Amino acid sequence: MEHLLQHLRNLGFTEMEGKVMVELAKQGSASGYEVAKRLGVSRSNVYGTLQRLAQQGYLQAGPGEPVRYSVLDTEELTKMISSHLQQSLEAVKAGMPKHQPERPLFFNVEGDKNVLESLARELSQAEHEIIVDIYREEAALLREELEEAEARGVRVLWSCDGADNTPARWMSPSVLGNAGRQGGRRFSFVIDRRRCMLGMRGEPGSAQAVVTEHPVMAELLLSHFAQELVLFELDQDMGAELEGRYGPLYQSIIRRYAGGPS
Q1: Is the pTM of this model over 0.85?
Q2: Which residues pair with 131 in a beta bridge?
Q3: Are 30 and 60 in contact (CB under 8 A)?
Q4: pLDDT tens-digit readout, 90-149
Q5: What local confidence, expressed as pLDDT, does residue 259 receive?
Q6: Given 37, 53, 84, which residue is the final one in a domain?
C-alpha cells in the first residue's frame, strides 16, 4: 500500500487523500464515519478530504444520510488525473518566463554512466559540425550517436586512435601515439565550433569530463585537432624519411619537449 500511496503523492495528492481513495477503492463505498474508523483518524479530517475530492471529481457522493462516497473506477480515475496533469503541463509551458538560465562557464561530469550520457546528449544537439579526438573504445560506444548526427547532415571529423580492425574512415591516428598518456584514455569533442567536452575514461567509475563554451578552450582544441591531422598527412607522405632522421614516432623531438631523456 505504501508504494501506491507514494505514487499518489507524486501525482499531487496529500497523504490523507491517497489513504481515503485507496480505502474507498477497497470497500466500494463508505460513509465518512466508516472511513475515519477504518483509517483510525479524526472524522473532521476525513470529512474535509471527502468533500474536497468529491468537488474535484475524483469521488462520487450518493444520495441520503449519511452520505456514502465511492471513488471512480481505476481507468476513469487515471484518465482524469492524466488530463489534469496535461493541463498543468501546458499551462507551465505557456506561462513560464522565457529567460534562459545562465550556464556556468565550466561544469564537471563524473562517473562513467554520467559522462557517456552527457556525451550522447551533447552529440544529439549538434547542428553543423562535430570534431572528435577519441580512442577506439569510446568511438565504439558513441558510434551510433555520431552516425545519427551524420545522417541528419552534421559534418563529423575524426581523429581516432584505433586498432587494425577499426574501419578506415574512423582512423586518423596521432603521430605522437600514446606519448604522455597517463591514467586513462583521453577524449575531446567540439560541437559546432563552440561547445566543448573533454575528459578521460579508464578504470570503472573513474570517468571525468569538463563541459564548457569558453572560446579559448574551443580554439585550443580545434588548433590541436588541425595540427594532429597535419602531422598525420606529413607522416603519410614523408614517414620513412622523418623516422630515419628522428627515430620511431619521432621520439627525439618528443623527448625534447616532454621532459624525457634526450
Answers
A1: no
A2: 157, 190
A3: no
A4: 999 888 887 766 666 888 998 888 998 999 999 999 999 999 988 888 888 888 999 999
A5: 56
A6: 84
Yes or no: say if 220 and 231 are a contact pair by the CB < 8 Å rule: no
Give a yes or no: residue 96 inside a domain: no
CATH number for the domain that contains residue 54: 1.10.10.10
In tens, the pLDDT along 155-209 reads 998 887 754 434 333 334 444 444 444 567 889 999 999 999 999 887 655 788 9
C-alpha torsion angle, residues 249, 255, 257, 262 (rounded to 10): -140
Residues 240 and 114 in one domain: yes
Q: How does strand 30-31 pair with strand 68-71?
A: antiparallel
Same domain, 19 and 122: no
143 three-class SS: helix
Asked whether the beta carbons of 82 and 72 are under 8 A apart, the reply is no
Domain of residue 52, residue span: 2-84
Parallel, antiparallel or unpaired: strands 106-110 and 208-212? antiparallel
CA atoms within 13 A of residue 103's CA, in its CB half-sphere: 9
Can you tell me which residue has the cell 546528449? 121
Q: Which of 58, 28, 34 is nearest to 47 (CA)?
A: 34
The CATH number given to whatever domain includes residue 207 is 3.30.870.10
d(CA 125, CA 148): 11
Whose CA is closest to 160, among 182, 180, 131?
A: 131
- On whether both 198 and 72 belong to a single domain, the answer is no
State the pairing for strand pair 208-212/195-201. antiparallel
